[in-house]
């Protein structure tokens, strides 16, 4: 716990040069986050799809060679009346080598597969865009969770200190007979409760720090916090319908499903191409050495057209075509679901921003009134018109208000990022914009 408190104090009072800001943490996450590294590798693998698809349109060249050992027993047949037949037992090696080139002229399934490769490469890029946006959101959420845990610990620590002071005052007043033992017990109860809350807040801070460490691959440095009284900006444009429309067309999730649907449609075309004939140019050059035969060495070059017409494949082509058609229907449904999900995410994020900003304004006013109420109750307790429980309640209310205000600010900033993500526009510039709101 002492280490957690030391980290908290360092983050609260360290100079700006010693605190890591959101942009620095984001760069650390790009370099070290395991999930993002996996997404980057998946993206690089996806770039090969277009190369693999193009291979089906290019010439295929192969070299072959063979060698054969022969041990023969040859008996020469002679005409009637001739001398007895002769026997020969030749042993020899036959060998040969050759090269063959096949250039597809008409293989419709290969052409479709090439177009699918282009789409799959584009899909890999879109999925990597999703991973980039996800990284921004995960980093921002983890960063703000640490700040919120620090704020909560600071508020609970302040409450515990105030409850301790109130406990000492209650004990002193009881000794001189101005309050009852009930006031002492109430003050002791609030002090004990604040102590328990402080322990829980310390644990929560450590959990938040370890969550951030998992993303950036190291223990986080003290973090820069939000500037006091920072003004949150409303999203532009200020129309929820515009954001919903942008999400339905520009969301990376929607783009990915659009590409998946196009790939599924191409797969139907590729499956049905199994019924079509294929035409190839086939050229070859070969050399054969055959000792002990009439032609000891032969060399030949051939070139021609090769036609293949599928007549019956056991029903496989028709079955694969039906399967692909069903998967295309599924892709249509997935695309519609992606559009609806993007629209819902945009609406939720928009409402999160607008309601969050209103909540921040209300809590800022509540902080002022709670602080004034605490001062008034302390003064009333001193002059005897308020009792100990009134002061304790006012202290608890102020601490609760401070925690809710901090959480509302962080939630509103996260909602702004999620709104950009829903529209497919979230990027590094948005990280810089929020970074500018932090203590320099």
Q: What level of helicity do the residues show?
A: 55-70%
CATH topology: Outer membrane efflux proteins (OEP)
Tally the helices: 11
**Domain count:** 1
The CATH homologous superfamily is termed Outer membrane efflux proteins (OEP)
Shape: elongated
Defining key terms:
alpha+beta, Outer membrane efflux proteins (OEP), disordered N terminus, elongated, 440 residues, single chain, two-stranded antiparallel sheet, four-stranded antiparallel sheet
Describe this structure in words.
This protein is of the alpha+beta class. It has one domain (2-68, 92-435): Outer membrane efflux proteins (OEP) (Up-down Bundle). 67% of the residues lie in helices and 13% in strands. It has helices at residues 2-13, 22-32, 34-46, 48-55, 108-176, 181-216, 240-250, 252-272, 316-383, 388-423, 428-435, and strands spanning 60-71, 74-75, 87-88, 91-106, 278-289, 297-308. Helix 8 packs antiparallel against helix 9. The chain starts with a helix and ends in a 5-residue tail after the last helix.
Short recap of the structure:
It contains 11 helices and 6 strands.
Furnish the topology, listing elements before pairings.
Blueprint: H1 2-13, H2 22-32, H3 34-46, H4 48-55, E1 60-71, E2 74-75, E3 87-88, E4 91-106, H5 108-176, H6 181-216, H7 240-250, H8 252-272, E5 278-289, E6 297-308, H9 316-383, H10 388-423, H11 428-435
């Amino acid at each position: 716990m002492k280490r957690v408190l030391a980290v908290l104090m360092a983050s609260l009072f360290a100079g700006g040069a010693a605190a890591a800001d959101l942009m620095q943490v984001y760069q650390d996450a790009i370099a070290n986050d395991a999930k993002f590294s996996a997404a980057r590798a998946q993206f690089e693998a996806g770039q090969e799809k277009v190369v693999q698809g193009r291979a089906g349109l290019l010439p295929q060249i192969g070299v072959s060679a063979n060698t054969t050992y022969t041990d023969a027993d040859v008996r020469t047949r002679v005409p009637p009346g001739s001398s007895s037949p002769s026997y020969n037992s030749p042993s020899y090696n036959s060998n040969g080598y050759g090269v063959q080139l096949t250039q597809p002229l008409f293989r419709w399934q290969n052409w479709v597969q090439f177009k699918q490769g282009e789409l799959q490469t584009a899909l890999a890029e879109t999925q990597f865009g999703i991973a980039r946006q996800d990284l921004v959101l995960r980093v921002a959420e983890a960063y703000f969770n640490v700040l919120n845990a620090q704020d909560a610990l600071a508020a609970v620590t302040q409450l515990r200190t105030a409850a301790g002071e109130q406990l000492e005052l209650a004990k002193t007043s009881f000794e001189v007979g101005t309050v009852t033992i009930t006031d002492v017990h109430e003050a002791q109860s609030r002090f004990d409760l604040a102590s328990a809350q402080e322990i829980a807040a310390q644990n929560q801070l450590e959990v938040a720090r370890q969550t951030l460490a998992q993303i950036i691959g190291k223990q986080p440095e003290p973090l820069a916090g939000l500037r006091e009284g920072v003004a949150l900006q409303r999203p532009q444009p200020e129309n929820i319908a515009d954001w919903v429309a942008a999400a339905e067309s520009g969301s990376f999730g929607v783009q990915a499903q659009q590409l998946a649907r196009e790939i599924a449609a191409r797969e139907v075309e590729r499956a049905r191409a199994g019924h079509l004939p294929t035409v190839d140019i086939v050229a070859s050059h070969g050399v054969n050495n055959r000792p002990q035969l009439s032609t000891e060495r032969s060399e030949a070059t051939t070139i021609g057209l090769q036609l293949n017409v599928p007549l019956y494949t056991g029903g496989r082509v028709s079955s694969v075509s039906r399967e692909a058609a069903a998967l295309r229907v599924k892709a249509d449904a997935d695309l519609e679901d992606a559009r609806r999900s993007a629209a819902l995410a945009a609406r939720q994020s928009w409402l999160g921003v607008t309601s969050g900003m209103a909540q921040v304004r209300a809590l800022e006013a509540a902080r002022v009134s709670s602080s004034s109420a605490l001062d008034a109750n302390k003064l009333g307790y001193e002059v005897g018109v308020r009792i100990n429980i009134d002061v304790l309640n006012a202290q608890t209310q102020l601490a609760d208000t401070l925690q809710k205000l901090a959480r509302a600010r962080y939630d509103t900033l996260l909602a702004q990022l999620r709104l950009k993500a829903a529209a497919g526009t979230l990027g590094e510039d948005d990280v810089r914009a929020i970074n500018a709101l932090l203590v320099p």
